[in-house]
Design a protein that fits this description.
The chain has helices spanning 14-25, 43-54, 87-90, 102-117, 139-152, 154-157, 174-183, 208-220; strands spanning 5-9, 29-36, 59-64, 121-123, 164-166. The chain has 229 residues and is of the alpha/beta class. The protein has one domain: HUPs (Rossmann fold, 3-Layer(aba) Sandwich). The structure holds zinc ion (ZN). Pfam families: QueC.
């Protein structure tokens, strides 16, 4: 029997690296997709490339899609990235780092690629625990997108298979994601999480993403290999 293919969204962060490792561990031939979407920096795309090489994907494509044209987020417009926020503030509402409809857009393009490849399995490293502010990281959203995927495609309508959106991390804490990634052989030293790195590409240490990453490593009892001097 031929190996089943899966499309995995890979951002270069630690969550998507772990999601990719889960797809690989589940026996899928992995087709990775990243986006050059007008994010503040290219460091995360470099990280995505490193992660895809290390986990030996069958193919990695980078889609050019400039979301700066619509803006509306601290990641895609000239809006400052919030720094030094405590967890109470972070969980109080939808943060300005939310990129309007981003996961809907990304999953839609991943779905198109999956249909082309004859794949019915998509993986996305969304998480609804540590950072519950993002509407497009919730299980309800994923379930709705899965329904859409089966209605929106030729192969879905013709009954050639059923699309499944895999979210292996959705109920895990950051520390649990890190432990699982280590178990699966992910080198987190290759990943990049910061929303607003220095001009040299070093993490700022103060944005929500840096703070949650540091907390995750601390709770997992590990040091972050990406912070080596
Ligand atoms: Zn940062």
């Amino acid at each position: 029997m031929a190996t089943k293919r899966a499309v995995i969204l890979v951002s270069g962060g630690l969550d998507s690296a772990t999601a990719l490792a889960e797809a690989r561990a589940a026996g899928f031939e992995c087709y990775a997709m990243s986006f050059h979407y007008g994010q503040r920096h290219d460091e995360e795309l470099a990280a995505a490339g490193r992660v895809c090489d290390a986990l030996r994907v069958a193919k990695h494509v980078v889609i050019d899609l400039n979301l700066r044209s619509i803006g509306g987020s601290a990641l895609t417009a000239d809006i400052e990235v919030p720094k030094h926020r405590d967890e109470g503030t972070m969980s109080a509402g939808i943060p300005v780092t939310y990129v309007p409809a981003r996961n809907t857009v990304f999953l839609s393009i991943a779905l198109g690629w999956a249909e082309t490849l004859g794949a019915f399995d998509l993986f996305i490293g969304v998480n609804a625990v540590d950072y519950s502010g993002y509407p497009d990281c919730r299980p309800e959203f994923i379930a709705a997108f899965e329904t859409l995927a089966n209605l929106a495609t030729q192969v879905g309508v013709e009954g050639k298979g059923r699309f499944q959106i895999h979210t292996p991390l959705i109920r895990l804490t950051k520390a649990e994601i890190i432990r699982r990634g280590v178990e699966l052989g992910v080198d987190f030293g290759l990943t990049h999480s910061c929303y607003d790195p220095t001009p040299e590409g070093r993490p700022c240490g103060a944005c929500d993403s840096c703070i949650l990453r540091a907390k995750g490593f601390a709770e997992a009892g590990l040091s972050d290999p990406a912070l080596k001097p």
